[in-house]
Automatic annotation (TrEMBL):
This is 5-formaminoimidazole-4-carboxamide-1-(beta)-D-ribofuranosyl 5'-monophosphate synthetase. It comes from the Archaea. ATP binds at residue 220. Its cofactor is Mg(2+); Mn(2+). Catalyzes the ATP- and formate-dependent formylation of 5-aminoimidazole-4-carboxamide-1-beta-d-ribofuranosyl 5'-monophosphate (AICAR) to 5-formaminoimidazole-4-carboxamide-1-beta-d-ribofuranosyl 5'-monophosphate (FAICAR) in the absence of folates. Coiled coil: none annotated. Belongs to the phosphohexose mutase family. Its EC number is 6.3.4.23. One of its GO terms (molecular function) is magnesium ion binding. It is an enzyme of class 6 (ligase). The gene is purP. GO terms for biological process: 'de novo' IMP biosynthetic process.
Amino acid sequence: MQLKRIVEEYHKGDVSLATVASHSSLQLLHGAKKEGLRTILIVKEDRLKFYRNFNHLIDEFIIVNEWKEILNRETQEYLISKNAIVIPHGSFVEYIGAHSIVNDFKVPVFGSRKILLWESEQDKKMELLEKAGIKIPKRFNSPDEVDRPVIVKLGGAKGGRGYFIATSSDEVKRGLEKLGLKDRNYIIQEYVIGVPAYFHIFNSKIMNRIEITGMDIRYESNVDGLRRLPPRILDEIGVMPSFTVIGNIPMVLRESLLIKVYEYAENFVNATKKFVGEELVGPFCLESIVKDDGEIVVFEFSGRIVAGTNIYVNGSPYSYYYWDEPMSVGRRIAREIKIAHQRGMLTDIIN
């Protein structure tokens, strides 16, 4: 009810798009300006000098010493006074925490909040994909079950940081011990051989459709650096691959495979309605491997904008098919907000 009252007040004036200075913030700010929205950037003092280079995209800075200050009552009340709609991204979720966003952050957020809780816990994440009827890798409940190459992944929006590959139960145990993991917020998955493909999707309440907005391949350290070395050197140095995302590479999928991607996206949105209790609105990503027979195996999802969308500031080939104009995901979010505001439909797209 409180959110409903806030949104009713928003409809009396202009709205602002607000986000945190990291991840995909420049794309979001650029897209908002293209759609004529006011912009607010929440930034730490040590990043301010860099972001001032983009003053033409930023109407107002909110400067904080620590990210947790975003949760302060004064900061939240100020954002609400500016009719701000906050766009969550991976860094925002990592800095603030999914539970804090859901329970302690009272400012309107674009998209779904509850999906961030499911995203932050690896077991719940895979459970939701499975409930959606999406093909996922085999899971192992404990290191003792491992009988093939696996990848061990941590919970939260960590950009692949801390993930590692193992080929035996002993290697899994050593890797977990090295990371000092005391809780169970990790998952052990079969390492599926194929081409990584990260599918960017947008569920539009305004247009009443699901859009494929692009896709990318992640460039990861040090696994992508190691592959340049000949096998004999790899054996000598004994370095284990790691999967921290450094950057992103554009990708266009074989068109016949798009049908399966769309089917997965539709199933996933329907699953969020049924099992999360809140429809996933706006951008999300199905993080996948495409095998040599064309089968698509989804090993993770992100329930908000992903940094791989940054490579398409002027739009991907797919967004052009929908809009016939430059349309980044940042601009697509801003357009959804603008039209919803004009039609009195903000409650359909924010939580």
